[in-house]
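Here is one chain, start to finish.
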Amino acid sequence: MARIAGVNLPKNKRIEIGLTYLYGIGLSLSQKILKQANIDPNIRTDDLTEDQINKLREFIEKGYRVEGDLRREVMMNIKRLKEIGCYRGDRHSKHLPVRGQRTKTNTRTVRGNVRKTMGSGRKPPAQKT
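Its structure:
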C-alpha cells in the first residue's frame, strides 16, 4: 500500500487518480508530477515498485505543499482576513459566500436552509370534516 504525505492511496486505482486523494493535488498537478518522475500514469497503485513510491514521495514532499501544511496555510490566511476586518474576512466569519455570489435565492445550505418567501414552508390545508 502506497503511503504519501500521511495518506494511504487507494489500492486499485490508476496512480494518476490516486494522487488526487492528497489534499492540494488535483488531476493536472498529478499528471505533471508523474511526467517529472517518469512514471506511467496508467499504472495501478498496487503495481508501483518501492523505487517509484519513494520517487513520488520525494517529488511531492520537496516540491509541493500538501495536506497539513497546506490546510494550516489556508486557515492562517482566513484568520488574517478576519483579524484585519476586511470584507472577505467578515463574510468568512458570517459563513456567507465570499466571492460575490448572490444570496437572495441561492446559498440556502450556507444560511441554514432559511426560506423566507411566502408559502414555501406552508402546510397543506386541513381536510374537510
